[in-house]
Amino acid sequence: MYYLTKNIQILSSIFYIILLPTFFISVNVIYITNSDWLYSYGWNRNHIEKSTGLSIEQLNSGSNQIKSYFNNDEEYLDLIIVENGIKYSLYNEKEVLHMKDVKHLMKLTQNTVILSGLVILTHYLITIFNTKSLRKSIKQILKSSKISAYSTIGFLSVFGLIASINFTWLFRQFHFISFSNDLWQLNPNTDYLIAMFPQRFFLETTIFIGIFTVFEFIIYLNVLRKI
Questions:
Q1: CA torsion, points 150, 153, 155, 158, in degrees to nearest 10?
Q2: Over 50: is that where the pLDDT of 4 sits?
């Protein structure tokens, strides 16, 4: 019985170490994807108004429709732009189909938050049950959290180094892994989706997610130390 309980605790700790950064990163992906400031920053940073010919008002309307699409039950995105009182669909069929794939990925991220959150909560309960002492359980959770934090920082450092050398390669690998088709291979000269969200937009979004994740680990560890 002792060895069974010990093995459950070890297995729980392994899942916790792996899924704690997964939880933070997934939460940050959802938060930042739904943040107005990210899109405003991207428009200004990448001069999107000039490169697309769309006004800031039209771009903001587009980002609002995208955020709404990620959180509703619509299968396809019909991004409507108004110009001189006339409404028209901005994205072509290929872009619309790719956005369907992106929405599926966002739903998967949302489910990952729920699943990883439940595993983390389960680890708390298992640790408290096994130690039968809140103080000892917090120490064990803190120990596992440090391992998770240091491993994550190491991974992010390597990822950041590779990104600084060749983000285009990482960008392409991510899409090869995440999508089963080539709909993501768009032309910025003809496709508004990639013109609105160029590669640098995704690079800087990735940097923001990494920074947020590191800060969340720092806050999380400090909270555990003070309990």
A1: -130
A2: no
Structure tokens, 83: 């110009």
What DSSP line would sit under 125-153, residue for residue? HHHHHHH--HHHHHHHHHHHHHHHHHHHH
The answer to whether 195 and 50 are in contact (CB under 8 A) is no
Question: For residue 24, what are the contacts with CB-CB under 8 A and spacing of at least 6?
Answer: 212, 213, 216, 217
Taken as a whole, the chain contains a residue count of: 227
Q: Coil, helix or strand for 175?
A: helix
Q: Which of 221, 205, 159, 219 is nearest to 30 (CA)?
A: 205
> pLDDT per residue over 151-210, tens digit each?
999 999 999 999 999 999 999 999 999 999 999 999 999 999 999 999 999 999 999 999
pTM of the model: 0.93
For residue 30, report the phi and psi dihedrals to the nearest 5 degrees. -65, -45
Dihedral, CA atoms, 209, 213, 219, 225, nearest 10 degrees?
180
Phi (first) and psi of residue 91, to 5 degrees:
-90, 140
**pLDDT tens-digit readout, 51-76:** 999 999 999 999 999 999 999 999 99
Evaluate whether 48 touches 195 at the Cβ level (below 8 Å).
Answer: yes
